[in-house]
Design brief:
Layout lengths: L1 H19 L3 E5 L8 H19 L6 E5 L3 H9 L8 E3 L4 H5 L21 E4 L11
Parallel strand pairs: 1-2, 1-4, 2-3
Helix pairs in contact: 2-3
Length: about 130
Amino acid sequence: SEERAEKKEAEILTFLAKCESNFSIIIDCNWESNHSESALKSLSQQLMFCYSCNRHNSNPCRLFLSGVGPLIRQKLEKIHYDNWVGVSTHFKDILEVADGNLDDDNELKVMSWQGDKTRLVYLTSDAEEVIEDL
């Protein structure tokens, strides 16, 4: 119904406003050539889990997936990532996304860090540090 659609749109706008008032996270997916098929499937499931946790969090953040190659994109399409609210996917690598060089110029208007890289969190399995609190 029209009332349900309006309620859903209002919910999405509220969620996006909360995301914009918080930090952003860029998840670097630019390593698909180094991983097996099962590792890529696991990655897509982990990304879905990250999205779900963020979507249900009272203080959500903006998620950017950078370096998304064709194999990862194919896996994400199976789990309907194009419907994820507050998530942007990009073919470009992490540095280009962090510098604001995105695939879609309109995206520049909604980047919550607006050029301030201190508001970004870089997640990698190679890190020796453990994030306890953001």
